[in-house]
Structures are given as structure tokens and as C-alpha cells.
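no rush on this but wanted to send it before i forget. theres a chain ive been looking at and ive put its sequence and its fold in C-alpha cell form underneath. please have a look and point out which stretches look like helix strand or loop to you. thanks a lot i owe you, the record is right below:
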Amino acid sequence: MERNSTNKFVEREQAYPAKRSADSRRADFLEIGAPFADDAAQAQAGRCSQCGVPYCQSHCPLHNHIPDWLRLTAEGRLREAYDLSARTSTMPEICGRICPQDRLCEGNCVIEFSGHGAVTIGSIEKYLGDNAWQNGWVRGIEPGPANGQSVGIIGAGPAGLTAAEYLRIAGYEVDIYDRHDRAGGLLIYGIPNFKLDKSVVDRRVKRVEEGGIRIHRGVEVGEDVTLAELRKRHDAVFVATGVYQSRELTVEGADKDGVIRAIDFLTASNRSGLGDEVPSHSDGSLLAKDRDVVVIGGGDTAMDCVRTAIRQGAKSVKCLYRRDRDNMPGSRTEVAHAEEEGVEFLWLSGPASIEGGERAAKVQANRMQLGEPDADGRRRPQVDPSSSFALDADLVVLALGFEPEPLPAIFGEEGLAVTDWGTLECDETMMTTLPGVFAGGDISRGASLVVWAVRDGRDVAEHIDKYLVAARTQRANKQSAAAA
């Protein structure tokens, strides 16, 4: 393709890679989209207007150099395009798969505003990453000169893995401690395979370990090792545990059998897909097969649950959400995929009670209406007293969001302060109230996106480096003074 082959958004339509049919998607957990063909990816990248103020870049938490790598892709300079995408992101092909581009880069594309449809940035980012792995262009982590200091990281999710990579490059010894038997955190156990095949995560984890970063799996901080012990073992500690405590449903009957948490449902499904023996699938307690499933919630986790239930062979799958489609927090693209696959959405509907004997049998629900805006500007849902209805439901999945676990108590550190929301309190350098202990990702910002966790991992590595460089300098000055 010729050079300077961009700004073609008028003559070329918006295009995504082909999707498998809904019927075939319902039958398995494979990713739903085909890879971008080379010519199609280059043609789509060539739609970029190369605008003077790239809103796509400014609305990306990582501030990826999107217009620049789109131009390189359009020109067929694919290795350069990938190298540029990897300069700001440790996981470009992962973010290309799971970021809600409709709320970030693509939703703020200038040609989207002009009515021509955004450049399909996420699909191109995924294409560049996968193409780089296939061609051997993904460079290994090259550790910097050893500086004699080490960092301990709690959590092998996207924030922890990203921080580890940057710190290793800066010359630190890095150890990651994770409670699970596999590294990847939410990427492995929270996000279904049809959005993110686990082999994509595994190759990133393997690259991290080949770079000399030690990952200690099955280590629960607070039980197997204390935070105090990690502080003695390492010169700095980064807490990147994520948030996994589910918000509870406070209606009558919410404690019945058959009312389950989204994280338990998704973790069991992912473990089954990884080949593990899953007792909760064998006994049916976390399996949707032949069940009438109602998922309560409207975020991306709810979308993962409804689409997982479809693939497990549920009799029916409904999503109950108290606001309307325009005010839901989840990705519009995910909603469209779910509807194609047979999920029924009940907007402006909220649960009033869970009916049945010991086990759930129905969800009694109320119609809702939107009232005045709350502090965040979102209109508050209010019960419409004129209508109520019941839904058959012998499996009710609660996807109401996540809150932090009580970390000071778990870690046994009274000096570890938390905010009113239970997240770890940090200063502008991302350091907690314990000297040398930093925090990032969901545990400091609240439940958020993977791309923000990657951003925090990148930022905290810089702050930790500055902190430890200052410590080295101070120690050297003391030694010099003592020698004099």
C-alpha cells in the first residue's frame, strides 16, 4: 500500500473483522471474531483522518500513539506499528480484545463525530499484537543493570504484571505473589474465553517469567506470608490485588440456594475451560445448563455472565437492569453480542424479592423509572409503583459490582489506611500510609478497567524507581560520610 495512505474515511466504510454466526458462537467458548486480514486491517487503518488533536489518544488511559500506529499500519509497516503500540502498553493485543473502545478511543474518534463511523481501533490493535507474536517480533524483557534492590508485588493481574516488567527493565529483582494457581488474575479467571483466549494471557506471563521475574503462585498474603514479612524481604512492595468482594443483594430471599455471585460463576466456568475438575459444575450449583437464568446488573461483568450462561446451555437467559440502555455502564458492543446470542434484556427493572422454597424459583421484580440525577450526574432509578412482574429463575446471578476486601485486617497492618470506599489510601506518588508500600489498579481506584490497571502498573513503576533511587543515594551519602 502506498505511503501517506490515510484520510480515506469518506471512500471506505467502517469495518470490523467478520464475526462467527450467533448459532456457532452459542455452541462454544471460542473467540467470536475472525482475525483481520492484512489488506482489510491496512484499509481500515487508512480511514484515520490524522487529525491535529487526536481525541482517540487523549481518551485512552495509556495515551497510546494511536494515529501514528494507524498510519504505519496503513503503509504496511507492521513491525514498526507494533513496536509503537508496545511502547506505551505491555498488553496491546489484550487491550485490543477487551477494552470498551466504544467508550474510549473509538467513541471519541473525530470521524465518528462527523458521521462516518469510527476507525475500528481495537480490532487493529489486536491485529498488530497477534501479528507480532506470529512473526516473532515481540521482544523479550531485557533486565537493566542490577542495582541491588528488590520489589515485591502482591497480585499477578494486569497492574502487577505491568509494574513487574518496567521494574525489571530498571534493574530490580522482582517477585510477584499471587493467591491463585495461575498468573493473570482477572484476565484468567474473570474474563470468559470468548472475549480473551487464555493462550493470549499465558504467552504474556511466560514472557514475564523469561525476563527473570519470579511468580510465586498459591501464596495468600496474610496467611502464607504477612505484609510485614514482605516489607522486610523487599525494598518496596506494590499492592495490586484487585477487588473481588461482591456487592450483596439486599432483598428478601437473596440468601436462597441458586442465588450466586458473578465472580464464582465466571471463575468456575473459566476453570472448566482450562481443564480443571470443577465440583460446582459436577453438582450443578454453578452451572446454567437447563436453567432459567436471571442475571442482575448492567456492567461488563453482567454481560460476561449472560453470554456464559447461553454457552452453558441455559433454558433461558434474562438480564435485569434498573436503568435504561442509554444509562447502562457496560459496553454497548457487548450488549449487541448478547442480544444476537439470545439474551433478553429487561431495562428499567429491578429485583424486589427472590421467591421459592429453599431454592430460588422466581424473581419478583418492579418496573423502574428514572428520577433526578445523583452526584455523578446519572438519573436515580425509582420504583414505579404501578407495575410489577415475576420471572422464572432457578439460577440468579448477582453482577452488582465489586468492593475491596478488608485489607488492613487481612494483611494484619493497622497502619494501612483505607478510604471511605475501602480502597487503599495513597498519596500522589501512589504510596500508601506505610512507607515503601505502594498500591495501584482496582485496589486503589475501585473496580475499573483493565487498561487503567495497566496504566497504574506503568505509573507506579516510575514512582517506586524514584523512591528506591533516593534510598540508594541516601545510603551512599551516609556511607561516604562515615568513611570520611
About this structure: The chain has three domains: 22-135, 150-243+404-481, 249-265+272-401. The mean pLDDT is 95. The longest strand covers residues 360-373.
